[in-house]
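Attaching the record inline, Q. Sequence:
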Amino acid sequence: MSASKDKTLDLLGIGPDSPLDPSVRAFRTTLALAQKLRYLMDQRLREDGLTTQQAALITVVKAAGTPSMAEAAAALGSTHQNVAQIVAVLVRKELLEVVPDPADKRRKLLAATEAGAAYWRGRDEGDFAAVAEWFGDLSPEELETFCGLADRVLGRLT
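Structure, as predicted:
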């Protein structure tokens, strides 16, 4: 296998000339891609003191309405304890709030705040443009194929 421009590809043994079993190559490629994308988004969010994981939790809460901590943890594929730590940070930053469940006062739900919504409205355009740039070498049809294949793997794992 020839040396590539990207040391990660060489270290993980991935890339077009990889001798790995295709499923192992796909796993390592997905892992490298996820790590690289998370790093890039972390860089974008760092100036505001946020992380990609925190942004993902806010996205889950916005999509779900008012999920429980357990529901949010399941959606992120994370532990309740890890999500609780992220929630504590986001509550301090006034991007999320913890509210009682109207049906069961002992149960706590997560909710987006207006301050959080305003913050994301100001960021979305630039972040969406950055993500489009990162995937810019793929055509719309290739992006559909990419998402379809990833969705199938995700479906098998859940």
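The mean pLDDT is 92. The beta strands are 96-101, 104-112.

More tomorrow.
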